[in-house]
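Fold these two proteins, one after the other.
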Amino acid sequence: METKKKIMNSAFRLFSEKGNEFSLTEVANEVGIKKASIYAHFISKEVLLYEVIDQEIYEYFFEIDEQSRDLKSTFDMILNYYSKSKAKRYFWKRLLLFPPAVFETTLISKINKLTEQRYAIIKDLIKLNMEKGIIRPQDPETVLYSFLAMIHGLVSISIIYESENLKINHDDIWQNFWNGIK
């Protein structure tokens, strides 16, 4: 089982670095096994990549959403996820911008569905805060997109400027956002 995990970790890292252009030979070399040994765990590169992406979908969508209670904790949890490694940031940018066509009807549609569900959760949090008078009345969808733009902007900035610390000033950035919507 440890070898399978190492293979998946290598494929994750290589996909985040190269997209679908990585080879199983590279994975084998990185793990320190023969290429043929990969086939004891995965029947093809596509199956390996499918499992890697599916695992990451679970971590990104379910571990965060299970703990979401308010906008600030959702913001923190999403940034904490992306702060785990630069590879996670590259992985999602590459997956969403250049998805492997073989997964378009499976994993990509799953991501789209889960994304819509997450957006609905966040939008409901925004509406609830408006009903309670915590956030001033305004278009909830505009606030949602501002929230998402802030998060994705922070992730993109860390990629563009190759910053390892995604959380630099994130509390101040949150406060600026919060002051603008309350």
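Now the second one:
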Amino acid sequence: MAQVTFQVRRRVRFSDCDPAGMVFYPQYFVMLNALVEDWFTEGLQVNYAQFLGVRRLGLPMASLQCDFKFPSRMGEDIVLQLRLLKVGKRSLTLGVECCGTEVVPSVRWRAQAVIVTTSLADDRSIPIPADVLEGIARWQQHSGDKL
């Protein structure tokens, strides 16, 4: 069975681009963070704003490896896809891909990211909260995604 992804479609905006009209590469990292926020809130049913704001928990990036394959340009639609690669005791390893939406979608950018659950009270890593693990289990069951 093919691995199912969480995905978000978005338009490349002027604010995403450099003077040449292509996505300025740090903007992909902003898009990655937004994708994780959407995955938590919509995919895992764990409200990301409350996770950080009310519960004072964090999800900093511990590791990020990426390859830029093809430019994305202002006005294009792209799809950002997230796959859960590994669940650790305190971290999640994610595979991320950004593709164009034309007839033959082209990969624009790929990344592997490790995010760590932390307490914002002392900036130390903590075990992944139970509701996040439960959300992952529900999401995997619903999507057919199995590690």
